[in-house]
Structures are given as C-alpha cells and as structure tokens.
Design a protein that fits this description.
Strand content: under 5%
Number of helices: 13
Structural class: mainly alpha
Radius of gyration: 21 Å
Largest sheet: none
Number of domains: 1
Helix content: 55-70%
Number of strands: 0
Length: 283
C-alpha cells in the first residue's frame, strides 16, 4: 500500500465556505487513490475467502436458503402465491436482488470502519475504503446473479430481449442503497446502534417489497407496497429478465438518480465531517 508522505493541515475555517475547492479536492483525492482502492479491494477479497473451504458458496447460500423456506411454506399450502413465472424462479430472483441491495446498503459503513486504524494515522483517504467495499459488493452481486443462469436452464425459461437492460436497472436500484449507506457513515461510525438498526430495518423492508410475492393491487398492504420507494427497483430488475415489462422503469430511474446525487452529497459531507469523526473516535 503506497502512501504519500505529506502533511495535512486542518483549518478552523469551515470548508463549506469554499464549495468549489471542497469538491475539487475530493475528486482529486479519489483520482489519486485509484491504486489504493484496488489494493484494498484485492486484500479484502483474499481475506474474505482465505479460511473458507466453500468460498463463493456462502454468497449463494442466503438467497437459496430464503427461497427454500418460502417454497416449503407454499408446498404445505401455508402460503398461496400466484405468479406469471414459476414461483421458485420468481422468489430466487427476488431474494438475489434484495440481498444484493442490502449488501450495498451495508458496504459503505463496513468499509469506513475497516480502515479506521489506517486513515487515522496516515494521509489516506477514508473514501478509498468505502469505494473498495462497494466494489466488493459489486463482485458479490455478479456471483449471485450468475447462479440464475443454470436456474433458467433448469426451468427451460428463456429471458426476454429486455434482459440486456438488467445492469442498468440494477445500477439505478443499487445506487439508492449506496446513498443510504454513505449517509449513515458519520453516525454509524460513532454509534454501533445505527449500523444494527440499519441492518435489521432493511431486512424488515423485504416484506413490503415484491421479493417473495408479487405486488398487491388492492387493500392497504397493496397500497403500502406500491408506495414503498424500493418496490420499483425490485420489480423492474425482475421484470427485465422475466416478463419484459417496463412499468417500473421511470420510477426506478428517478429514485436511482436521486440516490446518485445523494451519494455525491454524502461523500462531500463525509469529507467535511472527517476531522470531527476522527477526533470523536479518539484516534
């Protein structure tokens, strides 16, 4: 890990008084940290599976296990669900998308906390650890999505032509999760309760998203699902590789674009708060 031997001087003058200088400094530091980001990414990737015999199998286990539970409930007639595609395929795609989204929510805070011992002592951008953690979430998502190929073959299901748009839909949807994760860094790094609450709250949201059952058309629960800001992302990602419908395209793009903007704003806020966070953490 190469770190430049430079001196950082913090001024009492609020950095927000010079927004152009603040943003240009952030962009410059991120561009300069490209090699560092890649080094951290490779280091964490090796550490993730160094003592694991089954390796990437653990990435596939959560969506498969979740799908198995709900399939069991349906087979025992505890749950009655009607879908346009085979229910096992429906639920496996939904859980794969949702678990990946949850990982993108958690990745920024995990990355920031993992680098505390480094950027508190060296002139290293904490954003490098955040971005490397997000990159690892991208790789894990690619691995999970790959398992859908043999599942499609098993069910003799041919995805529609809109399947090539799936990466675009996933990009906008996961941008929402990244924005939430980065916005929580200043608070989650100081109080572990924030991270615990975030992980459990996001898990609960799965039940008002079309992850394990389709969107309800009527009733208060159906209205709640349709107003859920995460519903469009899950629905459009699944529709692109199953039915080809574009109903949820515009809401996903709009909400995802807001997520991209919030991610940038959150990075700027993190840069402003960095000296205070290090002081509060006692580093």
């Amino acid at each position: 890990m190469k770190v430049e031997n430079t001196t950082v001087v913090y001024s009492a003058e609020p950095s927000l008084r010079h927004p152009v200088r603040l943003v240009s400094g952030l962009i410059h530091d991120l561009a300069r940290a490209k090699e560092l980001i890649w080094s951290i990414f490779l280091r964490d990737l090796r550490a993730q599976f160094r003592q694991s015999i089954l390796g990437y199998f653990w990435l596939l286990l959560p969506p498969v296990a979740t799908a198995a539970v709900w399939l069991l409930l349906q087979s025992q007639k505890v749950l009655r669900v009607e879908t346009e595609i085979p229910y096992p395929l429906f639920i496996l795609i939904g859980t794969t998308i949702w678990i990946s989204f949850v990982n993108f929510v958690n990745a920024p805070l995990l990355g920031f906390n993992s680098g505390k011992s480094v950027y508190s002592k060296l002139n290293v951008s904490p954003e490098a650890f955040v971005i490397s953690s997000i990159l690892r979430a991208v790789l894990n998502t690619l691995v999970r999505v790959t398992i859908l190929i043999p599942v499609f073959i098993w069910f003799k299901f041919t995805p529609p032509a809109t399947a090539f748009l799936f990466p675009i839909a996933a990009f906008f949807f996961f941008s929402i999760g990244i924005a939430i994760g980065i916005l929580c860094i200043p608070f989650g790094s100081l109080f572990t309760d924030i991270g615990n609450f975030l992980r459990n709250f996001i898990r609960l949201l799965m039940y008002i998203c079309p992850v394990i059952y389709p969107i309800r058309k009527a009733g208060w629960f159906g209205e709640l699902m349709q107003k859920n800001p995460f519903t469009p992302g899950v629905a459009w990602c699944r529709d692109l590789i199953t039915t080809g419908e574009m109903t949820w395209a515009l809401p996903t793009i709009v909400i995802g674009s807001i997520g991209l903007l919030l991610s940038f704003v959150a990075f700027v806020f993190l840069r402003v708060a960095r000296p205070h966070l290090i002081a509060r953490l006692g580093m």
